[in-house]
């Protein structure tokens, strides 16, 4: 869990309820590099919406510049789950240096 990502996601304003829920869930499961490797079905289940609604919401968050979506493909050319990158500003909500 990346605490600074969660604090950043909570501070983002002007989001719909679903956009906020998805962004917070992504922040909760993001690794230290701010990457999330979950399928749209998993994300939809985390927030209690349909996969289609999750897809639309992820696209909206990308259009707002809050996340990047990276498509992945297997060796056979088949599509794999996307990787989502939280575009948290580098210095936003980092712990102060001791």
Report on this model:
The chain has 98 residues and is an alpha+beta fold. 44% of the residues lie in helices and 17% in strands. The chain has helices spanning 3-11, 17-29, 40-47, 51-63, and strands at residues 35-36, 67-73, 79-86. Strands 1-3-2 form a three-stranded antiparallel beta sheet, with helices on one face. Strand 2 (67-73) and strand 3 (79-86) form a beta hairpin. The longest helix has 13 residues, at 17-29. It is globular and about 40 Å long.
Structural class: alpha+beta
In percent terms, what proportion of residues is strand? 15-25%
Write the H/E string, N to C: HHEHHEE
CA distance, first residue to last residue: 21 Å
Contiguous uncertain segments of 5+ residues: none
What best-fitting shape do the alpha-carbon axes yield? globular
> How many strands in all?
3
Helix content: 40-55%
How many H/I helical runs? 4
pLDDT averaged residue by residue = 92
Rg? 14 Å
Query: How would you sum up the major sheet?
Result: 3 strands, antiparallel
Strand order of the largest sheet: 1-3-2
Topology:
Layout: H1 3-11, H2 17-29, E1 35-36, H3 40-47, H4 51-63, E2 67-73, E3 79-86
Antiparallel strand pairs: 1-3, 2-3
Helix pairs in contact: 1-2, 2-3, 2-4, 3-4
Descriptive keywords:
98 residues; 4 helices; alpha+beta
Brief summary:
With 98 residues, this protein is of the alpha+beta class. It has helices at residues 3-11, 17-29, 40-47, 51-63; strands spanning 35-36, 67-73, 79-86.
């Amino acid at each position: 869990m990346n605490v600074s990502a969660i604090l950043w996601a909570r501070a983002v304003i002007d989001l719909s309820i679903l956009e906020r829920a998805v962004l917070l869930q992504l922040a909760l499961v993001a690794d230290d590099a701010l990457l999330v490797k979950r399928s749209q079905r998993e994300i939809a289940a985390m927030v209690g919406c349909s996969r289609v609604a999750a897809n639309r919401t992820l696209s909206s968050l990308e259009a707002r510049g809050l996340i990047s979506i990276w498509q992945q493909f297997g060796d056979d050319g088949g599509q794999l789950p996307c990787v989502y990158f939280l575009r948290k500003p580098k210095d936003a909500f980092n712990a102060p240096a001791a």
